[in-house]
Task: structure prediction
Amino acid sequence: MTEEKISSPASHWRRRKWSSPIPSDQAARQGNITRMAFELLGKDGAISFLSSEFADLGGRPLAIATASAAGQARVLTEMQDLASGGARIDDVVAAQ
Result:
């Protein structure tokens, strides 16, 4: 039996272009809203809420909260309403 040498494709070793990081104020808002979502809605609820489209908010909560301080406040209010109202996040996401 002969041993075959397996080589990586040339594209594997090429440098990838780095994307520019988001501005520090946006990164801070993204981190804050994510942390609050996990605290208020739990892991699964936070992931579902932050990544789903919401017509009332005008898009995905994570993108809205990251974009501006006003957006962050709107998303936080929506999360607090969900958490205090006893609604299941799966039901809310399914209704959208």
In short: The two ends are 60 Å apart (CA to CA). The helical segments are 10-13, 24-51, 61-67, 69-85, 89-95. Residues 64 and 70 are 9 Å apart (CA to CA). The mean pLDDT is 83.
